[in-house]
Amino acid sequence: MQIKLIIFAIVSVTVLAGCAHYKTTLTNAQGETVTCEASGKSGVITGYYLRRGFEDCVNAAKARGFEEVPQTNPKPK
């Protein structure tokens, strides 16, 4: 019984807590850039709103003529 409780606690903490980070850079034909970024502690509900806010930023920039810049992988230090 105690093992089930421990497993339940681990699953609950994993689902309800965590971190999320979303970031992208968009550029337009004039070379101007916009960076959309959202980060914070992410639970099931909070993660949804973090992602939604990030996507709203990206969609607003695209509506103004910006396009996403392809992501490059930084070199490890």
What does this molecule look like?
- This protein is an alpha+beta fold.
- It has a domain at 16-68.
- The protein has two helices and three strands.
- Strands 2-1-3 form a three-stranded antiparallel β-sheet, covered by helices on one side.
- Strand 1 and strand 2 form a beta hairpin.
- The longest helix is centred in the C-terminal third of the chain and has 20 residues, at 44-63.
- The radius of gyration is 18 Å and the shape is elongated.
- The N and C termini lie far apart (46 Å).
- The mean pLDDT is 80.
SSE arrangement, N to C:
HEEHE
Q: What's the average pLDDT?
A: 80
Low-confidence stretches: none
Task: Please tell me what the overall shape is.
Answer: elongated
- Tell me the β content: 25-35%
User: Main sheet, how many strands, which sense, barrel?
Assistant: 3 strands, antiparallel
Question: Helicity level, as a percent range?
Answer: 40-55%
Put simply, the count of helices is 2
Radius of gyration: 18 Å
Number of strands: 3
Give the N-to-C terminal Cα separation: 46 Å
Structural class: alpha+beta
Strand arrangement across the biggest beta sheet: 2-1-3
